[in-house]
Amino acid sequence: MRPLRRMLVAGMLLLGLAGCAEPDRKVDGEVPTAQSQQYLSQHERAEGLAAQQRLLADRVASRQDYEASVDGLQRCLSTHGISLVNEGWNPVDQTSMMLWYRAPGKPDEYVAGYGDDCQSAYLSAVADEYRKSTESIMAPELMTLTRNCLTAKGIEVRGTEKGMPDLLASSDRHESVTTCVESGVNKLYPGIPVPVGW
Amino acid sequence: MAAVSAGAFVGAILIAPTAAQAHEQTVFLDRAGCGYYGWSNHGQAETARYSGSCSGHAWLRVNWNGNLSSWTHGLPSVRFTAPGLSGIAYSQHKSCETCSVSTILH
User: Fold this and answer.
1) Are B48 and B91 in contact (CB under 8 A)?
2) Which residues form the signal peptide (chain A) (predicted)?
3) ipTM for the complex?
C-alpha cells in the first residue's frame, strides 16, 4: 500500500473509531414524541377544544384570541405541575409566541406529553389560524439592525421590508439574511432563545 | 433556499467532527418524495427541507437549559440558536405537524 493511501485509510479508520466512540444519538421512539394525545382526560381535552371553538366562532383569530388561548394552555399545564415560560411574541415574525415548558424533576416524557396535549387542546387551532391570517412583520428594532447588518455586508436592501419574507425576496443571499437576523436577535434579546423560521 | 440548505447540510456531514463538536448529528426525514433533515449540536438546532417542494413545514423543538420549547416551524427552515451557544440537551425534528419525530440527544 502506498504511503499516501495508507495514511488516508488510517485517517478514515480513526474517524470511524471516533464515530464509534460516540454512540448513535438518533433515538426515535425512546424520547418524548408526545403526539399520541393520551395524557389529558377526555374532559380536559373537550374543555380546551370548546374554548378554542368559541374563540374561532367568528372565523377570525385575533391577537387577543391567541393570548386568551395561551392563558388556557397555562392553566392546563399548571394543573399537571408544569410551568409555562412565556417569552412573548417572537420578534422575528410576531405571528407566534415563544413558549417553554418547565417542570424540574419531572420526566421529559411527562413534560412533552402534557405540553403537546395541552397545546393541542387549548392553542393549536387558534395559533394556526392566527399565523395563516397574520402578516409576518419583524419587530422594528430588529428590522433596523438586520438592514444595517445586510448593508454592511454589501447586500442591498430597499428599506421598505416588513419581515423575513420581504428580506428574502429582495436578496438571494438567504444565509446572510438569517445570519443578520440572528445577530440582531443576540444583540437585542440577549439570553432569550428566539427561533428563526423562514 | 433549498440549495443553500442542502449545501449547509453537505458541509455538515463532510466536515470531520472535532472534539468540541463531538455531539453534532444529523437525521434524515423523508416525506412524500421530499427530503428534510434535522441537525443539532449543543448550541444550535435546525430542521429544513432540502429537496422537493412539499408544503409541509420543517418542525423543531429543543430542550434547552432544562426547559422544553413548544414546537416551532417554518418553510423551508427553522433554526434555534441557544444563547451562549450551549445548553441544548436534545432536539426534536419532524417534517409536518403530525409526522413522526426524530430526536437527537446530546
Assistant:
1) no
2) 1-21
3) 0.79
Q: Which residues of A touch B74 (CB under 8 A)?
A: 196-198
Q: If you measure CA to CA, which chain A residue comes closest to B59?
A: A197
Give the three cell numbers for residue B15: 466536515
Find chain B residues with C-beta within 8 A of A101's C-beta.
Answer: 67-70
Kindly state the helix (H) or strand (E) to which residue A127 belongs, with its residue range.
helix A124-133
Separation CA A133–CA A188 (nearest Å): 27
- Chain-chain contact of A99 with B64 (C-beta, under 8 angstroms): no
Interchain CB distance below 8 Å, B70 and A22: no
